[in-house]
Write the structure tokens for this entry.
Amino acid sequence: MDDENRSKIEDMIDKAYQADYNAANDIMNGLLQQKQSDALDQAKISMANQVYNGLTDEPEDGDEDFDIELSDEELDLDDEDLEEYEFGNEEEDEKE
């Protein structure tokens, strides 16, 4: 968060503490409008890249979608079966 937004948030909290709710509301609305404007600008840039440069949005690290196919048997497992299926039988591990 940049210093300008931090300052605005502190001002909003101070106004709310002073019971100046209209001023706090105005500050909050301004912050939300700025966030909305920034998100819209990013969407415009992304769309322009897709249209004019042929670029697609690549998922950022950690945002990948995984295609996982599960069998009917795996979908019907209850919690106990799932633990045995994923980790093996714990009793057998303790014996070894």
The two ends are 54 Å apart (CA to CA).
